[in-house]
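so my prof wants the structure for this chain in the tokens format not the other one, which i didnt know existed until like an hour ago. anyway here's the sequence
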Amino acid sequence: MRHFCTTRFTAFSILASFLPQSDAITNIQDPPSPRLLRPRASNVTKVGEIDATGFPPCAVTSCITSNQLSPSRLGCSGTPHLTTDCLCKEAPTPLQCVPSAPSDEDNCWYDAEDWFAGACSGVVPEINARTIPQCMQQCMFAQLSTMGCRNPTRNCFCVLDRKALLDAASNCLTGNNCVKKMQSSFQPDAWRDTICKLGETDSYDQEGYDKYIKMVHDTRIAVPVVVTLVALVSIITLGVLTYNDEGNGWWLGVPVVIFIALAIILPVEFAL
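here's what i got, hopefully its the right format
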């Protein structure tokens, strides 16, 4: 009897091993979904000579683990290890590796910018207003704020969507009469790309604009004065040529002279 029970138990065990396990048991043993895992704080304390203890956990994998903060990836030469000069001065876009953009709802980007400011002792490269025409400066910096840049830092500027940024710059250029003011030579794409590749660009040649303003001022004064003098001379000349013994006839040329004068003055004033 004992041998029979043992045999039945062994057979049942073998048979049970071939049966599918219940869903309930499978679910209990399954590991939690990766989407439910919260990012862990980084245990990396140093990246080269940079203190990384406060680096945002949301960007550790994309920036530190993936070695995106290495000098070679950042465009720094002459150093095998990350230095303060490399991170804070030489690298054009050191936060390019952050997985979220300034306009995203999460705070990963802003946390990264805060960390960068701390690592660089508050010295954060910003977009120089002098690199664009004066007539579009207020508009352009307002657009950067609208697009998510709390401050016009180079880091934020260069991670913005390129097409959206160029569209905004073009709208500021045309919407503020910059083209009319002889500043159509400014190229938004060259401005953006040079800053984000080299870290900086030359100041815009404001001298040309200043010369234009002076020319407009001088022309608006000179044209009416000259035309008025010519009109007076013309009226006097007509008076002499058409004068007769009765003392009339010269005034017939006055409307013609006035019309010609206005035809010259008004287009010049509106054009400028």
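also thought this was worth mentioning. The chain has three domains: 46-119, 129-204, 207-271.
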